[in-house]
Amino acid sequence: AGADTVKRAVELDAASRFQEALVCYQEGIGLLLQALRATKDEVKKHHYRQKISEYMTRAEDIKKHIEKEKQDSKYHKQIRIEDNATGFGYERLFQEYLTEIVSEVWVEDPYIRQLYNFLRFCEMLVKGPCRVKTIHLLTSCDEGSGKSQQISGLEEIQQSLRNYGVTLDIAFSSSIHDREIRFNNGWMIKIGRGLDYFKKPQGRFSIGYCDFDLRPCHETTVDIFHTKHTKKM
Known about the structure:
Helix content is 42%, strand content 16%. By secondary structure, the protein is α/β, with parallel strands linked by helices. The chain folds into 2 domains: 1-73, Phosphotransferase system, lactose/cellobiose-type IIA subunit (Methane Monooxygenase Hydroxylase, Chain G, domain 1); 76-226, Endonuclease, Chain A (2-Layer Sandwich). The protein has a 7-stranded mixed β-sheet, covered by helices on one side. Strand 3 (134-139), helix 6 and strand 4 (167-172) form a beta-alpha-beta unit. Helix 1 (2-14) packs antiparallel against helix 2, helix 2 runs antiparallel to helix 3 and helix 5 packs parallel to helix 6. It is elongated.
């Protein structure tokens, strides 16, 4: 298993998929350490030690490379969320990029219908460590029977945010299609399903209803860029 994992790491490394390669190197090193402890064959022990040292050195090099790219804002990270996966609450996706200088956030999503999800996102912004003062929401208006409920719900969130010194600017567009979230420190996050990538809980008292880290997800892809290195259309 360890050999297969590091083999995959080397393949990802060669393809410049460094973030994924780092994860595989770390998992592979752990498996090789287990094999090293389990064997009594000195020849095998020497081989394992040599490979572990080699892969640890490469993993450290990749870590430094990723950190430098982040500091230089030349960073693209992709996260693939599998169907029914858990552990992908908003904090996991966004917290790393919500630095203290973030004061303004733009959310463009044509289908903000599960307002509790948007509220949870706003709660994360209020908690910090960022100091958000303005949230711009651009979405489409529900043309069906849910229109009044959508508007009243957003207005309630707007009023609640005002109590925390945060302005929610709401705008509607009938032509919006893309989904993206931007912070004024330059980071941009694109989620295939927007903020509504969580599945509905089984009930009001089921695990995952309140803690989104425990909520199963729909399959989707998350791409993270820095606007300094994206072309304007």
